Amino acid sequence: MSRRSRFLPVYTGLVIAYLFVPIVVMILFGFNDPRGRFNFAWQGFTLQWYRELFDIPELTTALKNSLLVAGLSTLIATVLGTMVALALSRYRMRGRSALNVFVFLPMATPEIVLGVSLLSLFVTLGVARGFVTIVIAHILFSVSYVVVTVRARLAGLDHSLEDAAQDLGATPWTTFWTVTFPLIFPGVLAAGLLAFVLSIDDYVITSFNAGGTVTFPLWVFGASRIGVPPQVNVMGTLIFLIGVVYVIVSVVRGRERTGSVGAGALAAKTAKG
Amino acid sequence: MPASLKRRLTPYLLTLPGALWLLAFFLVPMVTMLSVSLQEGSLEEGYRFTGHWQTYTEALGKFDTQLLRSIWYGAIVTVVTLVVSYPMAYWIALRGGRRKNLYLLLILLPFFTPFIIRTLSWKFILADEGIFLGALKDWGVLPDAYQVLATSTAVVAGMIYNFLPFMALPLYVALERLDPAMLDAASDLYSSRRQAFLKVTLPLSMPGVFAGCLLTFIPAVGDFVNATFLGGVNTTMIGNVIQREFLTNNDYPEGAAISFLLMAAILVGVLRYVRKMGAEELTV
Amino acid sequence: MTDRERELRRLLASAPRHNVSRRDVLRGAGALSLTAWLAACGVSGTNEDGGGGNGGSEDDGLTTTEQNGQFSFANWPLYIDRAKGRRPTIDDFTKDTGIEVDYKEVIDDNESFFGTIREPLASGQGAGWDMIVVTDWLIAKMARLGYLEELDHSLLPNFEAHAGQVYKDPSYDPGNAHSVPWQSGITGIGYNPRLTGRKIKSFDDLFDPAFEGKVGMFKEMRDTMNLTLLGIGIDPQQATVDDAALAQEKLIEQRDKGIVRNYYGNEYADALVREDLWLTMAWSGDVFQLQFDKPELEFVVPEEGGILWVDNMAIPQGAENPIDAMAFMDYVYDPKVAAQITAWVNYICPVPEAQDILKKADDSYTKSVAKSPLVFPTPEMESLLYHYKDLDEEEEEAWNDLFGEVIQG
């Protein structure tokens, strides 16, 4: 093999390795046994933090808050976003391109502007900031991502199956639940996962709209002032592992599906003539 | 209701909840923020809408350095992530074969971990006497007083790391969609691979480059978390200023005005970029 | 151009493009700003009153005179004793009185904390906390704005009996109408002698170019400005706005020469331990605590003078559980409890009798706490210490503007 064709894969491998550096450090120091409250010098291996994961009440509460907010906002944002995605891809409607842009705009606005504008609204209306305002904010920035993700999925599907169902006499409602939804489900799932991750992760928008409620990133930010406890590393590691599981499942399912999807696509193409 | 009417109304009904949400919590807040920026007063006295513009001119005068700095950092981050991501996206999209998805997921996997933990990790890694710099100093490669943290280098490096997927993903999507027949034709036509790339692949991937640059530049200019953890003196970004105005000083009019200045700066940056891109598109 | 090239160009021109259209984005942006304009014109004239003025000025008294069995408490981090993830004093309090405490360490510095509660207080909604601990100047300011409840001293017998004289009836809160001290402390210099290579004695050491990039300063305006004024030989109590401008110049010089690494809140301690900082402005008790992680660290009061401040417990206006909060206030003035807290926190204890209790302790660490002039100041120490200048609204704004320029490079 020529040197040229080796370069790119090696380069890619290096970049990917670089991307994992802070993750490795985070995982490693979840096993550290620091003497004092500062976790920055390796002092010994321990599994203690995995056992004592929920020993810090405020951290546990913050994590719970984050999970609750993420769950709620993901649910609502996925529903809202999927509906919009369906409307935009499947139907003719007036103002479609304007709606397209409108949905895209939050993604193209800096987070700080989103957070600050919401704060302005809440202050003007005299609404106290807390759990509810956090959920509202999270739904806001998630919806756009859901729309884009589900639309990408919808774009790849053709109408033949749905047309067939309707020809057979199914109502639009039935068609949706028995044909469309199962087909777009992977896209909806991916969108939901994306929204969930964005929500758990969010610091900027939440910091402006949280009031007294503390979410996981907010707690970590505060703790970074005086010393982040190793439990945070452990929680980060566990969240990362969930991602690893997702990757493995995707890859395995991808390999299984390649065969059937290919066949299905071939069949559909042939049927269309 | 006749079925045809229902069918015509369906898309509007479907979009209604989502659109209303965006209207209420994206558009209206923007208008509110604009209105707040034109008010004067304080929390204790109450605010009055005066429509005076001097909040903007004052803010611009006070914080022009931070604004320019943010645009500058944003530009550097965009260029560097583009240069770093392109070869990687190219290889995965066009030569990744069956394992394409795996590689893509591998790029995204680290970013599954919360942003704040990742950035704190970098703060730890780049510490003056930390595992990386400390070792280099012990070996005499670096002078003892050398520091990375609390400099603009650390802030930009942190931003590059954190915004890499925002650039890599659109690039990958654009490159992955290229018609292989086109690329084959190109390599038949042009004698060197470099030429084929420059004349065909690169121009065709421009929409991805454009999307990636937008999706990287815009959030980068408004970022302040990297500056908070990794920065020091003289690395204050406009996002830090906005945060301080809103949360510490409670000076909502000034904070709102600066936010609009930020959006204006982004718009200007994007427009200049678009005009340049547009011109290039014409000559292809 | 060959036929082949022409063909290729035609192919390129017809190739499907990615959906993100620049024109769409621009059109959308244009539409957004236009709508905003129109809407703003429609909004003009509306009095977007944040409810200012009605918050707190009419003090109708406490919301209740009963104990509710719980209260929420916002405090600075590491400002109460800890053991194995629990807080003994809080647990003891709950055991003795049955009152649950929702304790959160959310205060990083006075200004940013005040920023979070100011707006609800101004609109009369209550701060969301039953009890807070803030520094003397903020007590004065909040009391002036009517944001603090008045204390019922009949519920605070321990305070009357055991608090040190100097803590009763302070100038920032006459008669302790709104607050009682939590801990007191000194702003001075914390440093690592191994890294600095010499003993640090003077405020000017913080400006020594030999320590370029290794010096920490506070982002809390009053600490930094007052200490700098002392450093240039001006008594803070006499300082005028011009003097403050002089202090600001010195600070800007320090920043532009690259001597300051950053302006810190509580995280200076982390930086000091990590050796990112060699010397820094510091709070006395923090450095004492840090010596557990890093015994070589030292705290010194600059020879030009240090700042003595008092952090106080206070009850924000509209608190739902004021009586429970006051029960806690009184509880910590029991000398045994005060000793327990100070033994861990290592700040200046407002209960002199605690010193005798600590002296009788078994371990050497606690005995050293009992003997330290940083925790129980001697008259010599006290002669070196000054208080923050009391700023009125105008001065505060002027000083804030001056200092803002320094830290927002």
Question: Could you give a short description of this structure?
Answer:
The complex is a heterotrimer of chains A (273), B (284) and C (409). Chain A is an all-alpha fold and 273 residues long.
**Using only CA atoms, what is the Rg of chain A?**
23 Å
Helix content of chain A: over 70%
Order of helices and strands of chain A: HHHHHHHHHHH
Oligomer classification: heterotrimer
Average pLDDT score of chain B: 86
Note the topology:
The complex is a heterotrimer of chains A (273), B (284) and C (409).
Chain A: H1 3-28, H2 48-51, H3 57-90, H4 96-108, H5 111-125, H6 131-155, H7 160-167, H8 172-201, H9 204-209, H10 216-223, H11 230-272
Helix pairs in contact in A: 1-11, 3-6, 3-8, 3-10, 4-6, 6-8, 7-8
Chain B: H1 3-37, E1 39-42, E2 46-49, H2 54-95, H3 100-108, H4 115-125, H5 131-138, H6 152-176, H7 180-189, H8 193-204, H9 206-222, H10 225-230, H11 238-248, H12 252-283
Antiparallel strand pairs in B: 1-2
Helix pairs in contact in B: 1-12, 2-6, 2-9, 2-12, 6-9, 7-8, 9-12, 11-12
Chain C: H1 3-14, H2 22-43, E1 70-74, H3 88-97, E2 100-104, H4 110-122, E3 131-135, H5 136-144, H6 157-162, E4 179-191, H7 193-196, E5 215-218, H8 221-231, H9 241-256, E6 260-264, H10 268-274, E7 279-283, H11 284-293, E8 298-300, E9 306-314, H12 322-331, H13 335-345, H14 353-359, H15 364-371, H16 379-383, E10 385-386, H17 393-407
Parallel strand pairs in C: 1-2, 1-3, 5-6, 5-7, 9-10
Antiparallel strand pairs in C: 3-9, 4-7, 4-8, 4-9
Q: How would you describe what is shown here?
A:
- The complex is a heterotrimer of chains A (273), B (284) and C (409).
- Chain A is mainly alpha-helical.
- Chain A is 78% helix and 0% strand.
- Chain A contains 11 helices and no strands.
- The model of chain A is unreliable at 258-273 (pLDDT under 50).
- With 284 residues, chain B is mainly α.
- Chain B is built from 12 helices and 2 strands; from the N terminus they run H-E-E-H-H-H-H-H-H-H-H-H-H-H.
- Chain B has helices at residues 3-37, 54-95, 100-108, 115-125, 131-138, 152-176, 180-189, 193-204, 206-222, 225-230, 238-248, 252-283, and strands at 39-42, 46-49.
- Chain B has a two-stranded antiparallel ribbon.
- In chain B, a hairpin with a 3-residue loop joins strand 1 (39-42) and strand 2 (46-49).
- In chain B, helix 9 runs antiparallel to helix 12 and helix 11 packs antiparallel against helix 12 (252-283).
- Chain B is globular.
- In chain C, strands 1, 2, 3, 4, 5, 6, 7, 8, 9 and 10 form a 10-stranded mixed sheet that branches.
- In chain C, helix 3 links the parallel strand 1 (70-74) and strand 2 (100-104).
- In chain C, helix 9 runs parallel beside helix 17, helix 13 packs across helix 14 (353-359) and helix 14 (353-359) packs antiparallel against helix 15.
- Chains A and C meet through helix 4 of A and helix 2, helix 4 and helix 10 of C.
